[in-house]
Amino acid sequence: LLLEHEEEQPQYSNIPQSKQGSVPLEAAMLQPLPMEHLFSAPAVQYLLPILGETPSGEPPDPKKCSPREYLEFYIFPVLLPGLAALLQEAEKEKCFEGKRTKFIPSDFLTEWLYNKNPKRKDESFTELFSIPFVKDWLKDHPRPPIPLSLLLSEEEASILIQSFWRGYRVRCDSEIQELRQWQKKLREEKHITEVVKKFWTKQEAK
Questions:
Q1: Distance CA 127, CA 63 (A)
Q2: CB-side exposure of 161: number of CA atoms within 13 Å?
Q3: What is the per-residue pLDDT across 155-182, written as a single tens digit (0 to 9) for each?
Q4: 63 — phi, psi (to 5°)?
Q5: Using CA atoms, how far apart are residues 178 and 200, in angstroms rounded to an integer?
Q6: Cβ 98 vs Cβ 136: under 8 Å
Q7: Selection from 88, 87, 60, 86 nearest residue 75 by Cα
Q8: By its UniProt entry, which PROSITE patterns does this protein fall under (predicted)?
Q9: What mean pLDDT do residues 36-62 have?
Q10: Which of 104, 173, 188, 206 sits most deeply, having the most CB atoms within 10 A of its CB?
């Protein structure tokens, strides 16, 4: 049995033999293995289908075909273009430039696949939150609101920051500080808040 096992093992001619005929473990590990021994099947079998291209020939019965045929004829022709569109949209949303972004890849891909479904080719575009199964899911699994920092563009955020800074610098002025102190004292002495509240109460009663 040992002799049969040794005959079945692949022979590597590029591994140096020692004088006794045995190979040291370190020498065997450092020698590169021939690539033809790493792949038992031709490289052609590992090629991915062309983007969005349906294989030639008659489409097989989806209920009787093999998993590979089902993927090549019914899944990849739609899924691969969707993934390509997803990467393009992610680049537009600058997802590769920062860690945080409002872009949700699964949302985009769900909307894209739903609208690109061949069964809906004559129907109008449907937004993500108008898709029936999405609406049903969100009823039981509501999402938290997206932070304002992710919704604002860089230009809008810069305008808000600059506006806050200018207001802060104005409030630090000595004359403005004096005016604010006078207003605060006036509100406390004259009970301005209570007066305004009573005024609106009378107005609503009318």
A1: 31
A2: 8
A3: 888 999 999 999 999 989 999 889 988 8
A4: -90, -15
A5: 29
A6: no
A7: 60
A8: IQ
A9: 58
A10: 104
| Contact (CB, 8 A) for 141 and 133 | no
Name the nearest CA neighbour of 54 among 20, 37, 21, 78: 78
Tokens of 162: 């600059």
Task: Please say if the pLDDT value at position 133 is more than 90.
Answer: yes
Q: 101: buried, middle or exposed (CB in 10 Å: 19+, 13-18, 0-12)?
A: middle
Asked whether the beta carbons of 82 and 113 are under 8 A apart, the reply is: yes
Distance CA 48, CA 186 (A): 77
> pLDDT exceeding 90 applies to what percent of the chain?
25
Report how far residue 188's alpha carbon sits from residue 179's, in angstroms, rounded to the nearest whole number.
Answer: 14
CA-closest candidate to residue 39, choices 82, 10, 59, 73: 10
